[in-house]
Amino acid sequence: MSKTQLRWLALTLAAAIVAAGALIWVNSGSDGPRIVTEDRMIATPGAQLDTTLYLPEQTPAPAVLVAHGFGGSKESVDGDARELAQRGFVVLTWSARGFGRSTGQIALNAPDAEVADVSRLIDALAQRPEVEKDGDNPSGQDPKVGITGGSYGGAISLLAAGYDKRIDALAPVITYNDLGQALIPNSATAEQVPNTPSANAFAAQGVFKRSWAGVFFGAGMGGSSFANPNAEAAEPGVDNDDQLDAQNPAADAAGGSANGAPQGGLPPGLGGRSQQNMGPCGRFTEQICAAYTELATTGKASQATVDLLRSVSPASVTNRITQPTMVVQGEQDTLFGLDQSDATARQITAAGGKVKVVWYAGGHDGGRPGSSLRSEIADWFDFHLRGRGTDPGTSFEYAVQGALRAQGAPNVRTMTAPGYPGLNGTQTERRPIALSGQEQTVVNPPGGNPGSITSMPGLGSVVSGSNSLSSRLSIDMPGQVARFRSEPFTTQLLISGASTIRLRVEGVPGQPPPADGAVLFAKLYDVAADGRQRVLPGSGVSPLRITQLPADITVTLPGIVRPIEADHRIEVAITTTDQAYAVPTQPAAYTVSLVDNTVQVPVVPGTRSTQTPPMFALVGIFVVIGLAIVVAVVAAIRRRRADDVDPSLTDVPLVIEGLAKEYPGGLKAVDDLSFRVEKGQVLGLLGPNGAGKTTSLRMLMGLIQPTEGTIRVFGHKIYSGAPVLSRIGSFVEGSGFLPHLSGEANLRLYWAATGRPIQHAHFDEAIEIAGLGNAVRRKVRTYSQGMRQRLAIAQAMLGLPDMLVLDEPTNGLDPPQIHQMREVLKRYAATGRTVLVSSHLLAEVEQACTHVVVMHRGKLVAAGEVADIAAVGGEATFRVDHPDQAASVLGELAGVTGIEIDGKQVHANLDGTPRSKALGALVAAGVAVEQAGPRRRLEDAFLELVGENKA
């Protein structure tokens, strides 16, 4: 490296350090809009509820109830409440009865207790003038209200929505559908399993989940939340980075303290009763205490206990939930697995409700999600409570964890499918994977001890992840396990849900089966090529209780998301013991064999977006510094190259000649593309998906190199890092904003990174053009998708560049914002600058653009003025004062046919006759022409140019 380059490197490093200091300073500023809080006690039958109301800057506004997790209190969800309030919602949090400073006994979300409490809270919201009322009853007792919460709070969200129709939208997180099936699961059935990705058999007479139930019950006995630092105390809103918050997930999830206790601890007495004098039931009702005592002492549930657990489960009301529901579940969760969300989604859809399903890379064993998914939940309420932003729809998102880790969090990519398979008439794809393995005998030792080890309630989050220590600590005791393996895979297989397998289980001659039936545990392992490294994804295990032997059964394996790499195998293991469950103490032996020698694996195709793990602010700063150094060095080297300039084109914004891009395998994304853009034009780049539009824009920006052809901007040949690119403002690759900074701070940091003088940025003009208003001072993590889009367009306009290149700029904007954007582009081009827009909204292109380029399968199929393209075929319309006279004049012109009169309009097929000639003939004949143009719309011409039958 030369001395000059070293000097540039040193200067760049110094500038980056200064920028880093500025970033730290900006981050220490305002936390966003001012939020006013109001604490009060609200009386309900049987309890006094400690509540906090969060009021945003502007009211009236819709309200959102935020419920805490089991063992927490309203303090546990303070951060989530403030985030929603900063988004403009009135937010109400409360400590559920028996928790925090609220009185009353814990009834596990009973209809006449905790559910009735929520209705009372909605009554209170209806009395507040700050809360917007539903349009159908603006003066009554029906506020616009949504509800969200995690785990225990997620269950109350569902139950309340089933009982109280004033709730307009909900977002339950990492919760249960049927508490009986969550705590006493049975994954063996002789019946048909629902055709959804993670459906479970949900059979009766299950196996008691002793360890988790003990943690659960213990949290209601004493003064702390779950020992699990990522238990449910603060799971109300969730993120789709799908990574965990990096700062302190343990403190976040437990409500603010790393040891798992709620902030401030529990007040003495809990309603006048000291903890020491609570008795054996603690804060639980006698009914709940009796049910747990029965389970803990016998390992089985009577019908009365099953009925009780059902009555406090969302499954009891999902058949009447029709409100829009966003169901969020964790992929690392041995308490409430993916099967619980699957059942909820099925049941609400069957009731006629709109359901969106999200699986994220966390859960009770995997940690609290971060900010992006919480923002997605806020977007859900934004749309369904006040009609803002784009419709979130009913898509299905799931997170796929990679192996690389930073700050303790795995890399994650998110896959998105149009909908949750198995709902609304769709089917779940299941791939049969051949297994080998003979009939095998397994033994349950006396007392069920020693037992196999899988999940570790309370510790799983400490060592969680797809390749975590917990998933590698599974131990199957010799003599207690039967194994069935596949052949090594030749390509990666992405398992997305619960696989199923058919087994035959028989008793061993001379060994009578236990009176309670055979209890077994099924697992699915990812086995490395060497056969020694075995991973149990999500530490998942499916318990089985088989009451009659012999039996041919269908077993639903644990719901997981796991990429099985090439050369790896999958292994299904059937064991007799598991230390997390109550197992029979009577010794027994069974034979286990395959019925059809396959395991049916769910596969859900989707589009992929890669996301990096969250990092501390300083880590992000140093990454920026590193990138700045690399860019500076590369730019310094490239400046030495001779600048290829065509002097005859220095006033022409863009000339593309013979452009082509071919990828390995022979795929040609762009093929011999040529067109030219002049000053003052607004050019629309049109084409169906796969036409090559975005690839062309990426080559224009120097992001990828063409295989053939040239691109010249103001005469300069484009290459990666070409200086002339500074004359282009673009929005092609996505914004990459820092969520913890305000919109304005992001814009200033971006401009500082360009190295250009601040007086040339024109911040105020760009912000005004994009219509950001005061929102530019809010943190980006509070923005809706539409706001992020407008911020990205403002960033592209910084410096008022000579050419603006925008890829789908109206994504996320509502109709008024689209109209505003159309006017922005016209005004921008009216200054003599040029705008190039790629869009699929044909009507918007027709109204905003002066010229259009139509692409299909990488090739140019048409180019020219919008009016000329729309007029392909010669059909024209003239609005005149004397239609009959105009029709007569047009009929005398050679070649003009198909003349029709429609009121003041006259339509004609000019068949090659220039429209200007027809217009001149009309004027010469004394016909006043108010308007002249193509008869057809751009959409008609577009469909003709790139229709299904076009090669």
UniProtKB/TrEMBL annotation:
TM segments? 615-637
Against Gene3D superfamilies, the record matches this protein to:
alpha/beta hydrolase, Galactose-binding domain-like, P-loop containing nucleotide triphosphate hydrolases
Q: Which GO terms describe its molecular function?
A: ATP binding; ATP hydrolysis activity; dipeptidyl-peptidase activity
Low complexity bias spans? 245-261
> What superkingdom does the record give?
Bacteria
A single Pfam family, by name? ABC_tran
| Alphabetical list of SMART domains matching this protein | AAA, PepX_C
**Domain ABC transporter, which positions?**
654-882
- Matches recorded under InterPro entries: AAA+_ATPase, AB_hydrolase_fold, ABC_transporter-like_ATP-bd, ABC_transporter-like_CS, Galactose-bd-like_sf, P-loop_NTPase, Xaa-Pro-like_dom, Xaa-Pro_dipept_C
| Compositionally biased tracts (Gly residues) | 262-272
Task: Report residue spans for region: Disordered.
Answer: 228-276
Keywords on record: ATP-binding, Hydrolase, Membrane, Nucleotide-binding, Transmembrane, Transmembrane helix, Transport
Q: Does the keyword Signal apply?
A: no
Please report which protein family the annotation says this sequence is part of.
Answer: Belongs to the ABC transporter superfamily.
Q: What is this protein called?
A: ABC-2 type transport system ATP-binding protein
Q: Whose protein is this, by species?
A: Kibdelosporangium aridum
Lineage, please? Bacteria, Bacillati, Actinomycetota, Actinomycetes, Pseudonocardiales
